């Protein structure tokens, strides 16, 4: 066996058939796997006129190239295709153990077309070689905690399962794909890919396997992994202890934390809602995704009280930012329950909390009234309202039916100036790192392929003190100055981050000071390749540009590379980023030149040819 399986499944749900499709080494060297190979297939097969929820639409699920190996954090799987929320390219990426189990079952990915007439789930059993379409009528209408656990009981307790909750069934545009059993759930959250599964009546995919990867030089690879794991652990102690929640207080101090739908600059309450307080009171245990030396996952429980929450995956930074800061909720236990409900229903916590914050401001401005909400006052800081809105969104009840479409669509429906405070880029609610506090992120958000996504660059890490000399950032750059250098930072970090999902590695190892040199060493030792760091960066650019080509076909041009009014024209009133606004007029032309895009935001034929892409 090779490191990767060298084949994927193509599933036709309409006819309940399947076939194995080979993946050649040449294809892997051209596109890697994960979202790289998925983008390649989608570009070849896409129909720009096809709605993402049309039964004929395709969902591409691919492990990164190293998933299932011993490589540090080699656990990441990408769910790819056209987003129901944004209408453009989307890759929703998740860790956990599902991807590794799919690899052990003998597959690198699954391509799903068609739609079942009745609810169904897939069971890919690598122990027997069987692929079964099982009835899921008894699971339809159940939340993910119930459904996921039931499927494991029906198949194999050692299987891994991914699927949808009630939000996906109801075609909520921000529905994610939960992975894992009730007590340990991760979610491929962004862009509404759970709604695609819902439109296909596919409740879940369970996988079980026993095959393991082989390596050109197993001894050498294990030695590399041992050294890299030691280095990553030494540089990730805070993440291991507190997860991403550990940075909550710092983001407020840096002018990074969104507050009251991005309107405030400071919030003293942040000092009481830190990761250390959260896990000191509610931590059950630390969790690790497959092959992860960091262990940023945290299981928590609220055993009693009005916001009782069962044992489950803990609250990460983005969720805290959304369900604490952006809605001004001061009740930590209510925030934990909000996270639990999103996991149960299968909802992206970023888009859900952002859309609730938008609705609260719309209520404040009189654009949503109690006549619209059934008498409920959408008041900032009211934990019971926040929790009820999550429920209504998942079930598409009341005002939740409008909010289930996302903030862009809700703003368009409301009109009367609502679009001025809907904080999204290309339809994707902006992740919770403020480009007014880290201006390189303004360039990233404006140009990122799936919309307002922080993960496509993560350049704000430099502003917090992270240096990667082999990426060209051996020192911390001024984070508030709109300069050509900030545009280049977005470009460089995007190119580097673009290889992580295709390789199946978690981007947190970059936060653990893994730069291109170390990443290349991991790849070469696993695969027997002879990449240089520049090969890795060039592959990142190639895949980034491929996804831009997809978006160009879907109608994206330079006019769409913009920030929402709130982040471009309304400065934070106080705090360390007070008064600062990113100057996109200065930075975007620099970025376009670096990227090789013309005035319409399209890659030039010369750049495409240099990267080996079709023009």
Give structural notes.
The longest helix is centred in the C-terminal third of the chain and has 21 residues, at 533-553. The mean pLDDT is 98. Strand 1 and strand 2 form a beta hairpin. With 615 residues, the protein is α+β, with helices and mostly antiparallel strands. The strands form five sheets. The protein has a six-stranded mixed beta sheet, sandwiched between helices. Strands 8-7-12-9 form a four-stranded mixed beta sheet. The radius of gyration is 22 Å and the shape is globular. The chain has 27 helices and 17 strands.
* Helix content class: 25-40%
- Sheet with most strands: strand arrangement: 2-1-6-3-4-5
Q: Would you tell me the structural class of the helices and strands?
A: alpha+beta
CATH top level assignment of the largest domain: Alpha Beta
Strand content: 5-15%
CATH homologous superfamily heading of the largest domain:
Aldehyde ferredoxin oxidoreductase, N-terminal domain
**Per CATH, what is the topology of the largest domain?**
Aldehyde Ferredoxin Oxidoreductase,  A, domain 1
Question: For the report, how would you describe the main beta sheet?
Answer: 6 strands, mixed
- Shape-level CATH architecture of the largest domain: 4-Layer Sandwich
Number of helices: 27
Taken from the alpha-carbon principal axes, the silhouette is globular
Distance between the termini: 36 Å
Average pLDDT confidence is 98
Which regions contain 5 or more consecutive residues with pLDDT less than 50? none
Our Rg estimate from Cα atoms comes to 22 Å
Please provide the count of β strands.
Answer: 17
């Amino acid at each position: 066996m090779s490191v990767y399986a060298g084949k994927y499944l193509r599933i036709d749900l309409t006819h309940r058939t399947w076939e194995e499709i080979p993946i050649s080494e040449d294809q892997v060297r051209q596109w890697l796997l994960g979202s790289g190979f998925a983008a390649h297939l989608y570009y070849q097969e896409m129909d720009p006129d096809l709605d993402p929820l049309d039964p004929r639409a395709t969902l591409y699920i691919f492990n990164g190239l190293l998933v299932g190996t011993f490589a540090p954090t080699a656990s990441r799987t990408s769910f790819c295709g056209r987003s129901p929320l944004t209408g453009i390219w989307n890759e929703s990426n998740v860790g956990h153990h599902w991807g590794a189990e799919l690899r052990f079952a003998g597959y690198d990915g699954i391509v799903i077309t068609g739609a079942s007439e009745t609810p169904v789930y897939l069971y890919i059993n690598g122990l027997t070689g069987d692929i079964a379409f099982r009835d899921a009528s008894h699971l339809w209408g159940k939340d993910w905690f119930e459904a996921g656990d039931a499927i494991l009981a029906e198949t194999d307790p050692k299987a891994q399962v991914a699927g949808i909750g009630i939000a996906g069934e109801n075609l909520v545009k921000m529905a994610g794909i939960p992975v894992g059993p009730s007590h340990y759930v991760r979610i491929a959250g962004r862009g509404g890919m759970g709604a695609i599964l819902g439109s296909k009546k596919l409740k879940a995919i369970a996988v079980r396997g026993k095959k393991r990867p082989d390596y050109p030089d197993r001894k050498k690879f294990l030695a590399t992994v041992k050294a890299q794991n030691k280095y990553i652990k030494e540089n990730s102690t805070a993440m291991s202890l507190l997860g991403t929640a550990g940075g909550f207080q710092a983001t407020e101090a840096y002018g990074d934390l969104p507050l009251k739908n991005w309107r405030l600059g400071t919030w003293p309450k942040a000092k009481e809602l830190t990761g250390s307080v959260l896990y000191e009171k509610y931590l059950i245990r630390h969790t690790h995704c497959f092959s992860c030396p960091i262990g940023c996952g945290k299981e928590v429980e609220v055993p009693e009280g009005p916001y009782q929450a069962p044992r489950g995956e803990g609250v990460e930074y983005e969720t805290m930012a959304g369900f604490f800061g952006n809605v001004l909720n001061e009740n930590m236990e209510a925030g934990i329950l909000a996270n639990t409900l999103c996991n149960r229903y299968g909802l992206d916590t970023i888009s859900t909390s952002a859309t609730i914050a938008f609705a609260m401001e719309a209520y404040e401005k009189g654009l949503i009234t109690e006549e619209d909400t059934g008498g409920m006052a959408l008041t900032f800081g009211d934990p019971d309202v926040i929790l009820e809105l999550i429920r209504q969104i998942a079930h598409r009840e009341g005002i939740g039916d409008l909010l289930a479409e996302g903030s862009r669509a809700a703003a368009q429906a409301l009109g009367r100036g609502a679009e001025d405070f809907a904080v999204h880029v290309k339809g994707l609610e902006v992740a919770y790192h403020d480009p007014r506090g880290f201006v390189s992120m303004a360039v990233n958000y404006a140009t990122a392929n799936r919309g307002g996504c922080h993960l496509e660059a993560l350049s704000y890490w430099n502003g917090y003190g992270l240096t990667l000399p082999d990426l060209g950032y051996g020192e911390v750059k001024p984070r508030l100055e709109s300069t050509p250098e900030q545009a280049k930072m977005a470009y460089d970090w995007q190119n580097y981050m673009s290889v992580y999902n295709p390789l199946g590695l978690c981007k947190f190892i970059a936060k653990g000071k893994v730069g291109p040199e170390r990443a290349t060493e991991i790849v070469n030792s696993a695969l027997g390749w002879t990449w240089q760091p520049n090969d890795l960066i060039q592959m990142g650019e190639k895949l980034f540009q491929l996804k831009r080509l997809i978006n160009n076909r879907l109608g994206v041009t330079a006019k769409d590379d913009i920030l929402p009014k709130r982040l471009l024209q309304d400065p934070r009133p106080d705090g360390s980023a007070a008064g600062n606004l990113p100057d996109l007029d200065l930075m975007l032309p620099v970025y376009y030149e670096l990227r090789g895009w013309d005035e319409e935001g399209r890659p030039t034929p010369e750049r495409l040819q240099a990267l080996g892409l079709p023009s």
